[in-house]
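Form P-L/3: holo structure prediction, ligand IPE.
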Amino acid sequence: MALSEKISVPRHIAIIMDGNGRWAKKRGLPRNAGHKAGAETFRRIADHCNSIGVKYLTVYAFSTENWKRSEEEVSGIMGLLEYYLKEALRDMEKNHIRFCAFGDLSRLSPKLQQLCRQTMERSRAFTDVQVNFCINYGGRDEIVRAAKRFAAAVAAGERTADSLTEADFETYLDSAGVPDPELVIRPSGELRTSNFLPWQSAYSELVFMDVLWPDFTNDDLDKAIEEYHRRNRRFGGV
Ligand code: IPE
Ligand code: IPE
Ligand code: MG
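OUTPUT (holo model):
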């Protein structure tokens, strides 16, 4: 029996797609071969999420800290993003997936920014599944950008500082309108969240898995969901 028939799936799953470099190293391949394999895994996992009924899938593709890597690696990753965004645009009518980019896109090349904007605009009407792609994303950076937008609204006389609530503040985040993830998965064996969705994951269940992202299977995703179901979510209650 398929997992989705056995137990309800979380509405929103977030994944830190980590371990591409180690996957490549183990095979004596360049790091960018790992990123290519990781991109294929993303495509497969996005399909799987779609087929089991996940409504929102948020994936960490490139962090605000990842610019520290070599020029060769960064341009390889940007090239892959371009390739997959073009594919998403081409196959949009078939896949019916809404695409959203989280992160500060202003540091990306004009071409990549344009592709992100086009994909977001043209997929806006698809409401079944939404994929949030985090590119040049950092959770602290997201909060600072949100604070700046709120401050600008105060300066323009549209808002007052005293009236700000948590729910209001969320409307200034990249994730405005998206419910918080119930489940955050980090493969690769690292036990940290590396600046991924700090606001939104305040009460998420975290599942760390000892598998490198390019090796991550549909079965691994199902196992993470089963682990999520074993947790007792109290939200501060008893
Ligand atoms: C994740 O894989 C992809 C990005 C951060 C862009 P890594 O490249 O971090 O892989 P490891 O952690 O070095 O194995
Ligand atoms: C987090 O992985 C970022 C992405 C997966 C895009 P990193 O490999 O950059 O994180 P650290 O360096 O292990 O914390
Ligand atoms: Mg890593």
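COMMENT: Residues 17-22, 62, 66, 77, 188 surround IPE (ligand 1) (CB under 6 Å).
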